[in-house]
Every structure is written in structure tokens, then in C-alpha cells.
Amino acid sequence: MTQLREIDYLISGQGLAGSLLAWHLLQEGKKVVVVDEDLTYTSSKVASGMMHPITGRRIVLSWRADEFLPFARNTFKSIEKATGKQFFFDMPVFEIYHDHGNRNDWIARSAQDKFKDYLGEECLANEVHENVNAPFGGQWLNNSGWLDAGKFVIAMKEYLSDNHSYYSGRINSNDFINTENGYFFHDIKATKFISCTGYQAIFENDWKHLPFNPVKGEEIAFTIEENLPTDYIIHDSIKIIPLGNKQYRCGATYTWKDYTPTPTTEGLLKLKEGVATLIKVPFTITSQRAGIRPATFDRRPFLGKHPEKENLFIFNGLGSKGVMMGPLLGFEMMRFLVYGDAIHAEYDIKRFSEAYYSSVATK
Fold it and tell me: Which domains are assigned to the chain?
């Protein structure tokens, strides 16, 4: 008879959310196992997550940026130290002005005190790199960077494996049992179970009441023989990230109601046009990838406990700002699980309790 391995937390999904939550739990000395089927098309593995403190064309400071940014940087640096792998890159952003009006908007923001840690010097049109197309100039952004999410997930998989905290596979009803004494999965008995399955949570009965709004995103990689900046990110409607050795990434597109992880011709054309708009020299595309972001309708993450089932939880819905938000939200989720700290009402799934009970009543 196989002896049960008793653990504290069983996590389904080793994307950005599952990896960060597992990291924080392990730092607290908890026994954790993350189960993942190692799919190639998850958004975490595809994304070049830019950590950008400004949101949208209205030029507003991103939600909780003052808290999220330093915590994210410190967390990723700590994980790099623990894994011996680099995947996070501090890097300024060159934000291209669209026109004179847009330039005036950026200058107005730079006069506001809340932007002082994020907006650097203005880059005048005659100071722009010779191969970057920015006829109105642009704005330098500080306290920014990017995460090679694919490398991060791989590094965390190795770290979890080394700590006996990784299980390759998929949790399904045939080999997963929920009882009053805990959750049983093969030879594992866990006290608590957390779903971190990204957009695939829309197919899980326990979370169908949550208003996910998955968004497909596509990205390309390209090479260039001419001189192009290598020490900052170029950003307009898309971003161009330097990888070194004349290689770059460009993304990303936004497509709703398409849950297929297959790259499209439409996405390729849009990204090619985007690159051609931002740079003045020829480029050669080397790859194209696609993934599905676990976005939400109210643009706030999903953290918390199932309305009825004991010891069943979710940490999901990080969306396109997951690189910036995930580390601190993962820490807050850990504090909720381990110490019972309250989750902020703005992203606690209790805000959808009425929707859950209404769905139950109609069954």
C-alpha cells in the first residue's frame, strides 16, 4: 500500500500565479505541491511581460503601482538569486508621442507629484535614435522593465522540482478526491487546494460564476542587421523589447472570444505593421506565438475562498498586468491562506457571491 504524502497546499497550475503563490508559501516553510501539465501555449510561457507604471492612452498611473512595482522587482530578484537564473530585466521605456497634443498630455503628467518616480526626461524629436520613428519625440519612463515569463516558469519548475514540490500531470475528477479530511491526489493528501489554472478556469464548474474575460495575445520575434537600441524598450501601441544579439520581441495583440492558442495571419500582419511603424529599417521575423490571458470583466483579479466548499480557493485573473501585480497579490494570497489576513474587497471573489448563489438556485 502506497504511503500518503501529507502536505499543506496543493496548487493546480504552474503559470505566473501558481509559481508566485508557491514561492511565497515555500518561503513560509509550508509543504506545497504544484501540479501542472506543462502546456506550451499558456500566456505565462508566451508573454514578454513588460512592467509598465502607466496605463492607457489617458496616461494614468497604474492601479497600486507604488506598491506593486517595488515588490515585484524585489520578488523576482529574490527568485533569480534562489534559482541562479536571470529572467527579470530592469530597463527604461521610451514612450513615443503620437502628436503634439499627446506630447502636451505627457508634459502635464510630469508636473504631477504622483508621477515623479516614473517619468524621466523628455526626448526631443532631434534626439531620437536614428532608426526609431518618433517624429514628435517621446518620454522616458523609469522604474520599468520586463520579465521573460517563459524563462521564469522554467526556472520555477526546476526550483519546485528540487524542493519536491512539482508534479507533472493534470488534476481531473478521476484521480482527485475531495473529502472532509482533505484533498487526495494520487499519493498526496493536502489540507487546502488552490486553483491557479489561468483562463482554463472558465471550464471548471467551481468557478463558472466568476466573470472571466479571456484575451488572446500574439507575439513575434525578429532579427535586424541595422543599428537599433539595445538598452531600452520602445513602446507605442505595441512594444519592442531588445533581447541581445540583434534579436527583439514585439507584442502584443488583443483578441477576445478566441480561445485557440494558434497564431493567426491577422495577428502576424498587425504586429508586422506595428514594427514597421516604429522602426525605419528592415527586419526578419523568426517566430510567432500566441497565448490566452486570464483577464476579467471588472479588470480586477480573483482571489479568495469558494462560497461553499471548505479549503477550496482560487488565485487567478491577473490579466495583462500580471507581471507587475502578481508578486504582491501572491504574497497577500499567502497571508490569507496561512494567517487568515483579509483580502481586499476590490479583488476578493466574495464580490460575486450573489452570482454564485443565483447560479446554484437555477440548477
Answer: 5-45+150-212+297-361 (3.50.50.60), 87-145+214-293 (3.30.9.10)
